[in-house]
Every structure is written in C-alpha cells, then in structure tokens.
Amino acid sequence: MPDTTVPDALATIIGAKHIEVREGLRATSLAEMERLAKAAEPPRDFQGALCTTVAQGRTGLIAEMKRRSPSGGEIRPGFDPAQLARIYEAAGATCLSVLTDEKWFGGHPDDLKAARAACALPALRKDFLVHPWQVFESRAMGADAVLLIMAALSDEQAVELEEIARSLDMAVLAEVHDEREMERALGLQTRLIGVNNRNLKTLTTDLATSETLVPRIPADRIPVAESGIRTAADVHRMAKAGAFCILVGEHLLRQPDLGAATTALLAA
Taking a C-beta distance cutoff of 8 angstroms, is the pair 217, 184 a contact? Predict the structure, then answer.
C-alpha cells in the first residue's frame, strides 16, 4: 500500500487501475508489452525540450488535452487530439500532456498516438500509473514521458516505475501536492518535479502551493507548476516563485480560440 494518506477519490481510481492492469496482463503479457515498448520508435526529448525553452527565456508550457473531468464534465465539444496538438504547437507550447484514462477522463491511448503523430512535440502520458506494465504500455503507445503521482505510490513503487521509464529513455514527471510528497520525490533521480496546486481532498486550486514549495526545490531540479494557471499574470507569479515550466490544460481547452488563448498565456 502507498505510504501516504491517499484521498478517497484517488484511492478509488488507483483501485480501479489495479483491476485494469490485471485485465491488461491477461490480454498482453508483461514480457510482450516490454517487447512492444522496446520496438517503438525512439522517444523525443521531453526534459530537453523544456530546458531549451527556458534557456531561451521563454515559458516551458506543457499543454494538456483531456476530453472531460470528473467534476467538470465534457471540456471541449468536437475534441480532436491531432488538431489540438497542431494548434498548441503553432501557439508556442513546448510539450504535450495527454490524458489516457478512459473511465474518469474519457481518454484513450489513441488520443496520445494521434496527438503525437500530428506534431513534433514530446508527449507526456497523463494517467495513474501503479504497475510496470503501464510504463511499458506508455512507451509502446508512443509516450515520451510518464507522470508519477507521489500520493498514489510508495517510495518503492515510485523507484521501480522510474527505473523502468529511464531504461526506456523516457522522462519522468514526479507530481507532488505538499512538502512531504516533495521530499519523497526528491529521492528519485528525475529532475522534473511537478507541484500540483490542486488540493486532492477539496479539489480547489491555490497558486500559493507552488509559491510555498517551488522555492524549496533544489537548483538542480526543474519545477513544473500545475493547475490553476489561467492568465499571463499567473504565469508571472509562478516564474517569480521559480517555476518557469507550467502544465495547463482545462482552462485553455474551454476557450473558443485555443490558439489565441495559448498565445496570450505565453505572452508573459
């Protein structure tokens, strides 16, 4: 079991993910999924893309796409991952984040495949990973990076999943919500530390979370502020705290002109 206090909603999702993995293993063995992962085309440099963007004095935007959310319902009618990827790329996004969870977010691995094929941006698989099979599956579907949610994993699980991802030359974004999770994430090798401004218990967002945690992240790591970022002023606020990379999705996806909204956000 995870060595953190997992909120009920997350615990429910994680329980369902273990069932999904068992079903997946019946259809495709771990060895076969590993073979498929290693046969996939080489990954794009997710971390390197962010570093290059920041070095150029720009904001490293990980632009997210998801069909719906448990609380907000359908986000963007006519959702077309390939079209969204092209718009994000043209508007200056550095990387993509694609929700592949189907039960709660309406996603599918095909969304990531279509988005990545439509542009040159590296893509993060945004899902709830709890088993090595899912990491191999992520690479097999073309993901260049995976998300590890520290609230959902024990230290041992996080290390195991990270080691597999690194063996496949994938980047890892370790997501934290508080200081304890951040300390645990810093025990991993990844430089990418995502600070989620969303409270898992109340589902409210507060940019003060990043303002508190980001300054405590060592200089050799790369902070990524997540959730609650809606305006260029918010981007400025996160940069002032030390986060020059951000992950934004739902707010942008709800705007009629996605390209203009993305460009405006990055005009900070």
Answer: no
